[in-house]
Design a protein that fits this description.
- By secondary structure, the protein is of the alpha/beta class.
- It is 28% helix and 24% strand.
- A 10-stranded mixed β-sheet has the order 1-27-2-26-25-3-6-8-7-24, with helices on both faces. It has a 5-stranded mixed β-sheet with strand order 28-29-30-31-32.
- Strand 4 (53-54) and strand 5 form a beta hairpin.
- Helix 3 packs parallel to helix 4 (126-136), helix 10 (370-380) crosses helix 11 (396-406) and helix 11 packs parallel to helix 13 (439-457).
- The protein is globular.
């Protein structure tokens, strides 16, 4: 199996770095595994929930009861019952677990060592998903509960379901705040209301640790006094461990001592990290930290002495924009905003298809909300990350990535790899009425319409965003293959087949690209001469794929081989003399395939 490019189903095939793949995701992941190992930064998937419904993938994984009994040994070969106890629950979950386990194993290989995977799920398989994610990925970052239906599902049997879940995993422990997100404009304005003399926004945070599990009793190094000179604009001095009566302040990054100012120590006000009930707490900064320069600021310059009800406190300025970027915030484990709901997801899709919206038709049953996927992808990416979704559905992830790249707060050059089964749409389904014969037809059209919406929504930045995609289709190999199922008398015919030429050299060059295990599907591929192709931009490979090496192709290889790391020529295209000449001329760079 391999992936073949489909230019007719693509938009700006040669320029784009976004990839859309049609095919069963298990086989697709196997095909791209070697090329994408440890190179995907963020994976988001919305797999079948095993709710015994059907739309894209069969969503009923209940194994036939008799087959399940035979599998677990309850029935013998003749169909006789061996045990009286029957596990009716297991057959509902076994096939779903097998389905997911194989795909998640491959996802683990693709995910970068610092990457993050997000998986949505409901109650049906939540515990089983957690179990296999614990086993495969190993590091649980958290679980998000998001409101899907505030009214609750009236068709449920006992409780009206109002929420679903996102489980978040990585391969290893990430740095603190590793999946925090940039605050948006509204949040910045509400949180950072103060302005300094340079009109820069900041807020004031208490320097005393707000958790009582930390204090002088277990953080002795964070228990020390500050001193305030109220006669000099509440100037702050820091405790000097080497001379308690000669504290210091900082000026341009250098320590200046009280003795230099000729201020009487007795006139200073001592400020300790005491709670209102006199509990001996601690500061969040050590003495050493107050003297450091971090994120473009000297920490000491951020300290402010404040008096409230005759009690003095030390606070610090926290700026909205620092040297390393805009302030960030941790995503909460409970999301109740309506923009993440099921209604929002359906509304997002309907907005792109007004013709269906007018007739109250549903082109796709339960698309995820764009804002939900944007939030998760934002958590798991940097500005140039690769995002993968191998249950692409209607293409919400593509829209989310494009909008993130266009938004001035989160702008970047993220690129996506989407995989979707070419599942037929049934005639009785709404999407069929609008000309969509396969789910992939709908997905591609949604991406195109979402791109148009991004241009409209972000006119100032959209020109800098990749709004196109290249399509690949899972198919059989371009190279003649030996068939092990043939009988011996058919061997001669099979040998003749192996000597046949490649039917489509451009298709075959992408198969070679994947076999080389170093290039991604968005790598630059250019036809530089007659059936001669160049792969890559810097570490380039030259490939010739045809049944006979032409004079033109031979001349190009001889004249340009020095600019390439490898020269690959289809073995059937070469005579023994040509092969020998190329090997002598080019040396170790030359290989046949």
């Amino acid at each position: 199996m391999t992936l073949k490019p489909d230019r007719d189903k693509s938009v700006n095939f040669d320029e784009t770095t976004n990839v859309f793949i049609e095919g069963d995701n298990l086989n697709v992941l196997k095909v791209i595994r070697d090329s994408y190992t440890n190179r995907v930064n963020c994976i988001f998937i919305d797999p079948p929930y095993n709710t015994e419904k059907e739309f894209i993938y069969p969503d009923n994984f209940v194994q036939p009861y008799k087959a399940y009994q035979e599998m677990i040994g309850v029935l013998d070969e003749d169909g006789n019952k061996l045990e009286s106890e029957e596990d009716k629950l297991g057959r509902k979950h076994t096939n779903w677990l097998n389905f997911m386990y194989a795909r998640l194993l491959l996802a683990y290989d693709l995910l970068d060592d610092d990457g993050v995977i997000f998986v949505t799920i409901d109650d049906t398989e939540f515990l089983n998903l957690r179990g296999i994610m614990d086993e495969i990925f190993g590091y649980f970052l958290g679980q998000i509960t998001y409101l899907t239906n505030p009214r609750g599902r009236s068709q449920d049997q006992y409780l009206g379901k109002s929420a679903e879940y996102v489980v978040v995993y990585s391969k290893k422990q990430l740095v603190k705040g590793g999946i925090s997100i940039t605050k948006n404009d509204d949040k910045l304005l509400s949180d950072y209301r103060l302005l300094d003399e340079n009109e820069k926004r900041y807020r004031e945070l208490g320097l005393r640790n707000s958790h009582r599990e930390f204090g002088r009793f277990n953080r002795e190094n964070l228990w020390y006094p500050f001193y305030v000179d109220t006669n000099n604009k509440n100037k702050i001095y820091v405790c000097n461990p080497e001379d308690e009566k000669n504290p210091f302040y900082m000026e341009n990054g250098e320590k200046k001592f009280l003795s230099d100012d000729r201020v009487d120590f007795g006139e200073l006000i001592e400020v300790l990290p005491l709670w209102d009930d006199e509990f001996e707490g601690c500061w969040t900064w050590s003495i050493d930290k107050t003297t450091r320069q971090e994120k473009g600021f000297w920490n000491y310059d951020l300290l402010v002495a404040k008096q409230h009800k005759n009690k003095w406190n030390i606070v610090r300025k926290d700026y909205a924009i620092k040297e390393d970027g805009v302030a960030q915030t941790m995503v909460k484990t409970l999301l109740t905003d309506s923009s993440y709901s099921s209604d929002a997801g359906r509304g997002d899709l309907a907005e792109l298809f007004p013709e269906a919206k007018k007739n109250k038709d549903r082109l796709f049953q339960n698309p995820k909300a764009v804002e939900l996927v944007k939030l998760l992808v934002n958590m798991g990416t940097k500005e140039d990350s690769i995002v993968m979704d191998f249950f692409a559905g209607s293409g919400t992830t593509a829209q989310a990535v494009m909008e993130l790249n266009a938004d001035p707060i989160t702008e970047g050059n993220r690129k996506y790899v989407l995989v979707q089964l070419q599942e037929a749409i049934k005639e009785e389904q709404d999407a069929y009425k609008y000309g969509y014969k396969h789910i992939t037809d709908l997905t591609r059209d949604r991406i195109k319409r979402a791109a148009a919406k991004v241009r409209e929504k972000y006119p100032d930045t959209a020109n800098n965003v990749d709004l196109s995609f290249k399509t690949f289709v899972l198919d059989k190999s371009n190279f003649p293959q030996w068939d092990d199922s043939l009988e011996e008398e058919q061997y001669a015919e099979q040998i003749n087949l192996l000597e046949e030429s490649i039917s489509n050299p451009e298709d075959a060059v992408y198969e070679v690209l994947l076999l080389l295990r170093k290039y991604l599907l968005d790598a630059h591929v250019e036809r530089v001469s007659e059936n001669v192709y160049s792969i890559g931009d810097e570490e380039k490979t030259l490939v010739y794929l045809d049944n006979q090496l032409s004079d033109k192709g031979y001349e190009y290889i001889i004249e340009n081989y020095s600019g390439y790391e490898r020269i690959l020529v289809y073995d059937n295209a070469l005579s023994q003399t040509q092969k020998l000449n190329l090997r002598i001329t080019i040396g170790d760079k030359f290989e046949t395939l």
